Amino acid sequence: MFRFHEVKAGVLRVPNLTIPAKAITCIIGESGSGKTTLLRLLNLLDSPEEGEIWFDGVSLNEVNPVEWRRKAVMVPQTPVMFKGTVEDNLQIGRFLAGQPSANREQLMESLYLFHLDKELSQAADNLSGGEKQRLALARAVLMNPEVLLLDEPTSALDEATSDTLMQRLTAHSRRNGIMLVMITHSRIIADTYADYIIEVKHGIPQINGGFIHE
Amino acid sequence: MSETIDLSFWQLAAAYLFVLLLIAIVRIKGIPREKEIWIASIRMVIQLILVGYLLEYLFHYSHPVFTLLLLAVMLGFAIRTVFKQARGKLSQNMKRIIAISMISGIIASLSTFILVVIGMKPWYDPRYVIPIAGMIVGNSMTGISLGLHSMIENMQSQKAKVEGALMLGATPRTAVRDIVNQAFDAAMMPTINSMVGMGIISLPGMMTGQILSGTSPIVAVEYQIAIMLGIVGSVSLSVLLFLQLGYRTFFNHRSQLQL
Prior knowledge:
The structure holds 2 protein chains of 2 kinds.
Chain A: E1 2-9, E2 12-19, E3 24-29, H1 35-42, E4 50-55, E5 58-59, H2 65-71, E6 72-75, H3 86-96, H4 104-113, H5 129-142, E7 147-151, H6 159-176, E8 179-183, H7 187-193, E9 196-201, E10 204-210
Parallel strand pairs in A: 3-8, 3-9, 6-7, 7-8
Antiparallel strand pairs in A: 1-2, 1-4, 4-5, 9-10
Helix pairs in contact in A: 3-5, 4-5
Chain B: H1 9-15, H2 17-29, H3 34-60, H4 64-85, H5 92-118, H6 126-157, H7 159-167, H8 172-175, H9 177-197, H10 205-212, H11 217-246
Helix pairs in contact in B: 2-3, 4-5, 4-6, 5-6, 5-11, 6-9, 6-11, 9-11, 10-11
C-alpha cells in the first residue's frame, strides 16, 4: 500500500492519498495534470519537493532507489527498445536487475500474455509501436515485480488488442499478487478493470470510488 | 649533418605572402573572415615570439620552480580551453572532475615519460620537459574535449533510454554504459588515427622539427615513437578517469537522472 502525505512535486499536490495494496488502480485525468509525475514518484525516478511517500509503512526516502525500482518496475508510455532481438529485449530487464536469465518457457509465456506473436530471434527495432509497447510490458512482467507502474500501456493498441491485453494483464496480476498502478486515458478501461480509480484534477489526485472485480 | 638555416626577418616576412594570398581570396569570394585571419596570424606571431624569448630565458636559467610554473600555466590554459569549448553550461562538479582527470592523467604519464622512458637528469630540464608536456597536454585536452562533447550530447539524445534502463532497476553505471563507451571512442579516435597514419600520411611535427634541426632521422623516430606512446597513455588515462567520474554528475544521490 502506498501512502502519500503532503506531497508536492511539479504541478502535483497530494495532501493525502492511499493506493491500496495488491489491487488494480487506474489513474485518469487530463494531460498535464500530473499523472506521469505521480507514477515517476512511485518508481523513485523523481523525488517529491516536499512531503513523504510510504510503501507498507517504509518511507521511500529510506529505501535504496535501485533496489526499489527492481521491485516496483515502471513501463513508460513510449517504450524503450534496446539493441538486439526480441529475446535480448525480454532478458535485459532481468539482466539489469541482476536476476538470472529467463528460460524459454518463461519467455514464450510472457509473449503469449501480451498477445505478441513474434519470433524470439526477430530484431526488436522492426516491431510496430504497439508491438514494442507490449514487448516492454512483457519485459517488465518477466522481472516478477511486486508493483507494476504502467504509463498508458494500451495507447498504441486497437480496441480488440487492448481488451485482450487488459484481460490477461489483470488476470496475471491478480493470480500473482502484483499491485498494478496504471495511467489510462480510457474511462472504459478504468471502469472495466480497476479496483480503484484515482482521478487527477488540477494536480490533485483523489480516489474516486472503489470497485471490486472478482 | 648540415647546420640549420637561420631565417632572416625578410625570409619570415616572405612566408606572410601566403596570408596575403588568403586574404585576397576571401576578399574576392566575399567570405567574411578577413578580420579573423588577420587577428589569428598576428596573434600567432606575437605569442610565438613571446614564447621563444621565454623559452630562451628558461633554458638559460633552468630551475625546477620555473619548469613547474610553466607546466601549471599550460595545464591551466588547457583546462580553461576545455571549459570554453563545451556547449552549454558545465556544472561546478563537472568542471572539478575535468580538472582532476586532466591533471592526474597528464602528471602520471608525463612523469613516467620523463623519469622512466627518457631517464632525464636533471628531471626538470626545460628543453625536454616543456615541448614534451606541450604535446601531452595538447592531446589530452583534445581527448577530454571530444569525450565531454560526446557524453553530453548522447546523454541528452538518449535520455529516454537511460531512464528506461533506470526504471528497470539498472544502476546509473549500467544505464550509461553505451554512452560512456561511445565517449571513450570519440575521445581516443584522433590519437588512434594519427598513430595509424604516422609516417605514411603525415610526418609528425616533433620529428620534422628534430630532423630540420639536424638530428638523425633514426633518433627523431625513436623520440616520436616514445612520445606517441606517452600521448596515448596520457589521453586514455585522463579520458578514462574523466568518464568514470563524469557520468556520475548526471545523477543525484537517489540515482535519478538530472538533465
